Amino acid sequence: MFNNFLELAEARYSVRQYSDKPIEQEKLDRILRAGQVAPTAMNAQPQRILVLKSNEAVAKIRTLTRFHFNAPMYLLICANTAESYKAVDGNDSAEVDTAIVTTHMMMQAFDEGIGTCWVRGFDANMVSAAFGLPEHIEPVALLPIGYPAEDAKPYPGAHEKRKPITETVKYL
After folding, report:
1. Calpha distance 167→81 (Å, rounded)
2. If one looks up domain 5-149 in CATH, what number appears?
3. Which end of the chain has fewer beta carbons closer than 10 Å to its terminal beta carbon, N or C?
4. pLDDT digits over 104-133, tens only?
5. Among 107, 106, 108, 80, residue whose Cα is nearest residue 94
6. Rg, Å, the chain Cα set
């Protein structure tokens, strides 16, 4: 679909309108595999991903965030803090590792023609309680996921504005 990664990255956008078309299992498997092979600190792989696909799970997550966009399915990406790498200064890599995993899955999904939108607009404690997560499994991101609706388009102004690279990169 895309000639190179930069072309894919420039085209990807956060989808906020989804069709009801189900995601084929082989495409979902590739999306999850992209998360599995993502780099994590010391290869600890602290990600835990809940595929919220059943009617019950979808209804439950929709009560826990207003940013559900009526997607047909959701990926709840969590961090296992019992397994994550702890740096010398005590910093826990769990959240960063989980963010890398989430990004890999978003990019693979878009390459498959499937839309996502990174959501952090939820109360992690409420989500944990609703899905019975143990204390060491922390919700980090929610990905509404599905085929974009026919009229889906990038959120106005969200993708056109990029700071000049000279503002974000410094050569030393």
Report:
1. 34
2. 3.40.109.10
3. C
4. 999 999 999 999 999 999 999 999 999 999
5. 80
6. 17
